[in-house]
Each structure stands twice: as C-alpha cells, then as structure tokens.
Amino acid sequence: MSSAAETTAASPPTPEAPTSTTKNPLLLLSYGLIIGLWFVTQKILVPYVAHLLLLVISLLYVGCHWSLVLREEQAISRGDVVPPNDPDDGSPPPPPPPSETLRKEDAMQFPLMGSASLFSLYLAFKFFDKEYVNLLISLYFCAIGCLALTVTCAPLFASFLGKLGAKRFKFGKPVNHSLPAFIFGESPMDLEVDLTLAEGFAFVASVVFCGFYFKTKHWTMNNVLGISFCLQGIERFSLGTYKIGAILLVGLFFYDIFWVFGTDVMVTVAKNLDGPIKILFPRTIIPDPITKKIELSLLGLGDIVIPGFFLSILLRFDAANAKVPAYPTDIHASFAKPYFHSCLIAYFLGLATTLYVMIVWEAAQPALLYLVPACLGSSMMCAFVRGEVDLLFAYSEEEEEEKEEEKDAVTTDDDNKGETEGKKVQ
To answer: pLDDT digit string (tens) for 252-266?
Structure first.
C-alpha cells in the first residue's frame, strides 16, 4: 500500500477540463474585425491606414493568444501533466502538431539567410521571365497555403460537425520510389495519414480555395492565405527566450534598413512578387479603366510575423508570471498582461509612425526601423518599472536538450580556461 501511494504521488497529474465559460471580449472583437474587414472592404472603401492598423493589431492579438497552446505542449513534453485518454474509446490523445523553437545561433544567422533569399529572388526577377518566376512561387505558396488554411479552418469545421468531426481516420501504405535516400528515406517509404473528419473537410475546402486563388490571384484570396500564414506562424513558433528574441529583432532591424534604404532590392521584389507574402489594402474600389485593377497598398508578412513572435513570448511570460495553468489551454483566461499589452500598444504606435513617415515623405519605409525599438523599448521599460528584468531574462521555453548543451559548452569553456591559467602558473 505504501508503494502504491508513492507511485501515485510521483505520477504527473491528469488535469481536468476547464469549467470557466467567460470569453475574452477583446479576442472576440479581434475575430470580428478580421472577418468583418475582409467582407466590408470588398464593397465599401475603408481608409487604408485604418484598415491596415485594425487588421494587423487584430491578427497579432489572435495569433498571440492562440500561441498559449505552446505552454500546454511544453508541459506535456516535460512530463508535468498527462493528458487524459479519449472518453469515448479510451484511445490516447493525438500528438500535438509540430512546433519550432529558435536557437541563438539561428537567430544570429537569420538576417544572413533572409538576405540570401531576398537577393536570390531579386536576381530571378532580373534575369528570368517574371511570369515563370511567379508561376513557380505561386505553386509553392498554394501548396503550403493549403496546409496553413487547413489547420486554420479545421476548428471551424469541428465546431459545426460536433462529435462527428472528431472521428479520426488513420491509414498508411508503403510507397516505392527511386529517389535518393537522403530526400525521402529508404524505399519503400511509409506514407501515413492521420486526421479527423473535420480536418479532412477543411483540407478539401482549402484545395478548392487555393485552386481558385491560383487562377484569379484576387487580392481578397491573397489576404486569406496571408492571414493564415500569420496566425499559424505566430501560434506554432517560439523564440525560446527573450534574449534570443532581442538578437533576432536587432539583426532584422539592420537587415530591413539596408535592403530598403541601401538598395532597390526589397522594393523591387515586393512589387514584382505575386504571392501571398503580403497583406493587401485597397485604396480604391473602382478599377482603373485601362488596367482593370484597383489601387492597393501592401504590408509584408514579415512586419507582422516577426514582431508577432516577440509579442507571443511576452504573452506566455505574462501567463507564467501570473501562474496560469499550462494545461489545459484556455485562450480566454483572464490574467494580467502588462508586457503583452505595453508591447502591443508600442507596436501600434510604431506602425502608425511608419505609415505617417511613408505618407509624408512619399517613399517606402523599413517598418522594422520603427517596430523594433518600439517592441524592445516597451518590454524593457515594463521590466524596469516592475523590477522584473532578471525574471524576464531568465524565462525560457527552450528544450531541455538545448539547455544541457549550453551548460556543457559553458562547462567546457570554464575547464579550458582553468587549464590555460594552470599552465601560466606553472
């Protein structure tokens, strides 16, 4: 009996489902603005500055709150909690979707990799036929857009289908191939599909949608894919620590300034690339009689997603600081969000400043020139005022293996330093 008691005490707790039905009004408002602006702006001309600011802030608010699910997945991976089995058939819960955590080395290399990709696109548009380049890019973005849209819309289908939508289908089949093993592994390759009925319906709808987008390239359909990329990117990606986020933002601060002010590369690629890597905002609703197109302004997804990564880790830090249970995730949970709210307000002011300078000077502006100081400055000011600088810098979402590697690296450096000093003494 004593042994059984000890085993039970050592086992991670199995959490209960949340009982609170309170909804976050700002989150509901953000949902309404995203959907409402998409419909309204097709028929009514909304000033593009107001359209841009309202839509982007709503996307950040929703995406960051969706990212709270990362705390749940981290708690499960650490073994802090054990998710319950399915109440209907007793089957274990499906594994969480894959997420990415940025390492310090990756953050340092990100501006270099981004520069290489950007300049490659510039050369492609300069030396190859623009239509063929855009055709290849469109095929690529339609493929990944289909996946992003499926994941974004699956919860909506699940809410309509109820328990039927949660029914899982899993099947696999070995597929022979003659490709190199480093691409698809050894032949035959095990091709497995594991999805719910809601995800299946969402996938079919996404394939149809992306097919129409590929054919029409309508700006409203571009925005649907762009919005899906933003929401899924912010939800599934973690910067790991505040310090890594700061390194990434500072590197991209100089990246944006160089490629916008120092060259025509950024502007050329943005104007020529016909794909959902930007959100489009109509400045007219009456097409030009010659081109048959309406006038549009744009904002690159990077100016939303990159600060969104930073905002989302601040929100999760707020949740951890407020002792909000990591499992089960409740995106409507009410808790103090000083870091998130102060940084979101600063982002709004930084983006408004970008638009003001762009309109006054009638020239393209690197948005991160204004957004990076706003995000870093507001978060550091909040930490200083609250006396939590050390706490903010200590917060980490890195995997345990990465932490151990860093500790080993520090230990090795200390040992080498000690050996060197010992030799000098001798």
So the answer is: 999 999 998 988 898
